Give the backbone structure.
Amino acid sequence: MLTVQRAKQTKAIDVKNLPLKKILVVEKSHEGILRGILSLFQLTKGQPQVHHIFYCSDTTSWTEMRAFAYRCFYSQGALHQLIQPELLSALVQDQFTRFLHKLAKQQPK
């Protein structure tokens, strides 16, 4: 299904129907992005929703990324996918990374 996949175990997260408790990083060719998105939803047996998938571009703002991060952390057990974050500006990538660390530290255990 996927040609290349890297997974790194992070803090256990409770994603409904995802027994692996991992955050997955998937690298795909441009042509295989849709297949990769659908494969991850198939893994969780969830239905893709428009608010669970965020496509990045070089014009994506920090405000949009912050809103996505809040959806990820405060939604109930949903799988969220960030697509092509490498297209973000270096500044937005840095802000987003620091913000994710901050949210992760604030999460109750």
Notes: Helices lie at 33-44, 62-74, 90-106. Residues 90-106 form the longest helix (17 residues). The two ends are 34 Å apart (CA to CA).
